[in-house]
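Structure first, sequence second, as always.
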């Protein structure tokens, strides 16, 4: 209700976006008032391979200064990386983060991460989590916000922490450990 009142104060009527949030006029409940809030903790490993066998990240653009930049500023990679339960690529695959990252720091190795993790097994199969934020790759622990999701993770928000488990610039392989806390809603579908 607070969201509805806030939107109404800014000129949105109940048939618009606030109606979507409350489920009015849609035949089923879609909003948080008809759902239970849930906190889910996830732990997985992200395998990014830019060269060699099993390439999962591909350069799609670079700036005119990328090759001269110590931080590879302006480089953009599209990704479809494996997510696994353990740090080995051979451990059980649980999903694939798809999206891109761009090297956005002129003077440091910081990345803009735009990642939609599609889960492919277990109770989260078919669901997604979206992570969008700054990843300063040289820091031991990085935090990025969870900004959305679908399926089990509908209306998700939260935090993802990343820690480099393995990095080899020569082979182009990085393994990053992720711990995610996602707050989301499991809807109660009521007519």
């Amino acid at each position: 209700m607070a969201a509805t009142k806030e939107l109404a104060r800014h000129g949105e009527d109940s048939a618009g976006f606030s109606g979507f949030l409350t489920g009015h006029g849609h035949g089923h409940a879609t909003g948080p008032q008809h759902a239970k809030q849930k906190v889910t903790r996830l732990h997985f490993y992200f395998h990014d391979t830019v060269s060699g066998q099993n390439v999962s990240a591909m350069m799609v653009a670079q700036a005119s200064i990328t090759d001269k930049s110590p931080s590879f500023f302006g480089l953009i990679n599209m990704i479809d990386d494996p997510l696994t339960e353990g740090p080995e690529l051979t451990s059980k695959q649980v999903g694939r983060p798809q999206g891109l990252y761009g090297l956005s720091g002129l003077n440091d190795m910081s990345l803009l991460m735009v990642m939609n993790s599609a889960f492919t097994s277990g109770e989260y199969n078919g669901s997604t989590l979206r992570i969008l934020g700054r990843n300063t790759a040289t820091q031991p622990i990085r935090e990025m916000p969870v900004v959305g999701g679908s399926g089990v993770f509908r209306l998700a928000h939260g935090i993802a922490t990343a820690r480099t488990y393995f990095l080899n610039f020569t082979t182009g392989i990085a393994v990053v450990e992720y711990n995610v806390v996602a707050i989301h809603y499991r809807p109660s579908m009521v007519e």
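Margin note: Helices lie at 2-9, 17-22.
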